[in-house]
Amino acid sequence: MKEKPVGVIAQFGGQTPLNLASQLDTLGVRILGTSPKTIDMAEDRDLFRAMMDKLGIPMPKALMASTTEEALAAAKEIGYPLMVRPSYVLGGAGMRVVHGDSDMIQYMASASNVSRERPILIDRFLENALEAEADAISDGKGAFVPAVMEQIEQAGVHSGDSACVLPSVSISDAHLETIKEYSRRIAVELGVCGLMNIQYAIAEDKVYILEANPRASRTVPLVSKVCGVAMVPDAVRIIMASTEGKPFDFSTFQEKPIDYFGVKEAVFPFSMFPEVDPQLGPEMLSTGEVLGMAASFGEAFYKSQEGAKTELPQTGTALISVNDTDKGGLDEIGIQLHELGFHLVATRGTARYLTTLGLPCTVVNKLGEGSADILSLIEKGQVDIIINTPSAGQSAQDDSYIRKAAIRQNIAYVTTIAAAKAAIKGISSTRQEGWMQVKPLQEYYRA
Q1: In a 3-state reduction of DSSP, which class is residue 352?
Q2: pLDDT in tens, 215-237
Q3: Domain residues for 363?
Q4: What is the DSSP pairing of strand 343-346 with strand 317-322?
């Protein structure tokens, strides 16, 4: 190399440089910070699971498969639903939630580059789990976790596409401490030098680890800004101290109390592709992200939506169409929208449930059920916000025309109950005196 560098840091460019680290090391390039061996260990599911077993950290049951027959046998052993994905993926590419043998056969038929060296990873999918993630700074001997982020969307939506809030609004103190402790133990056991991102899921009052990435994640700017911690410069100082054989004093890191909220929202390119269904899933679709900060979670969420060009309405008509599994969430959502002054319009099954709650509701036909249907209502500009949660499996595509129409008409829409609840908190914040305050980061830190 003409530049003759001391070495190369491979952990600040996402997954691509991690995938190149071993090749660069083989070519004689010195990898600074986390070693290629550690990187490969985190990617190898068998080695990583063995390490988690050693540490006593639970993971969802998982197997690997290189053929359709092996995949079906794994599915029978673990049980549906399952999360399936290729090895060494970027941005969740090729990840799917499968609900039965026909889904699995179809997935394996479409999967490319599957081999014994690069098998399909098959994990138990934790339904209705709350997902969280933590970024850690480590020198391989100690680790510091500034805070734990809570994903607003439930399990099944890629962490890059889900809105997330920092600090957490619903994770218990006990689970937060467990996540921090697991993160510290994993970073030290792996020998991470620099930054690391760890994904978790909380289901049935138990914290599971999903994966660990020994690199900077897209959440590093969020954590740095909200917590007032310069994570990248700090990580580089640790890496260079390790390179020079100098000890690093972790006592300089202190977790700071945060009495405000930061909400990250993903930015999507759907307006450029109006025929693409904006339904979120395990494969990452977003092309950017924004951050909203405020004294309350609701206002921070509202700001994040404004930043993502999805302004929430303060009043008007709410169109609601949710699957049977999600109807219980209407007890809170329907009542709050009514109290906020929204006129409720719903498809037949949803309307029937809303009326049992004593809420006034106008029934609207689905496409093909009559002339005055959802599509005409949306296209005439008679809807201000849409709450549409599709069912699992093939029927997840049934209401795609609703979501596509929302994109074309630039109408705020949400596709999960969790996001609907957050949106309502955001709308409620507009009714508070002195809402939408704008302050520089320094004022948040001083407070």
Answers
A1: helix
A2: 988 889 999 999 999 999 999 99
A3: 264-429
A4: parallel
